[in-house]
Amino acid sequence: MPEKQVSLDQSTWTVLIQDIQDSLPNGFVSIGSYEHGSPDDLEDSAINHVTYHHIREILYHYGLQDMHKLKIIDQLGNILPVLPEGFAYFTDENGAFYKDADGNYLYGETE
């Protein structure tokens, strides 16, 4: 999977997920990166977790633990609502988010 960059705009509490080589928009600062399913993946097998786990881990290391005040968007500008504890979005091996026929993001319980 391509490496993804995680950046934050603290004025709007927006987290942006985009390809590592993409330029950061004004107001955003890079706070980390991840490669979902890589051999060095700290979360173990890509089957056992979702992209959200990487985002959460990066934010925790940055000192942000209140995920509910954040708005997470992907590089296409799609807003990814923060889910309740124990739920996560489903992604494919490339980190793309699955949607249903109506365009709603698919998610489920993680445990």
Topology:
Elements: E1 4-9, E2 14-19, E3 29-34, H1 51-62, E4 71-74, E5 79-80, E6 87-89, E7 107-109
Parallel strand pairs: 2-4
Antiparallel strand pairs: 1-2, 1-3, 4-5, 6-7
> What percent of the residues sit in helical stretches (DSSP H or I)?
10-25%
How can the largest sheet be summarized? 5 strands, mixed
The count of β-strands is: 7
Q: How would you sum up the global shape? A: globular
Strand content is: 25-35%
Question: What is the overall pLDDT average?
Answer: 75
Using only C-alpha atoms, the radius of gyration works out to 13 Å
The CA-CA distance between the termini, in Å, is 24 Å
Our count of domains comes out at 1
Structural class: alpha+beta
Low-confidence stretches: none
Q: Helix and strand string, N-terminal first?
A: EEEHEEEE
Biggest sheet strand order reads 3-1-2-4-5
Please tally the helical runs, counting DSSP H or I stretches of 4 or more residues.
1
Keywords:
111 residues, alpha+beta, five-stranded mixed beta sheet, 11% helix, globular
Q: Can you walk through the features of this model?
A:
This protein has 111 residues and is an alpha+beta fold. It has one domain (4-109). The chain has one helix at 51-62; strands at residues 4-9, 14-19, 29-34, 71-74, 79-80, 87-89, 107-109. The strands form two sheets. It has a five-stranded mixed β-sheet, with helices on one face. A two-stranded antiparallel sheet has the order 6-7.
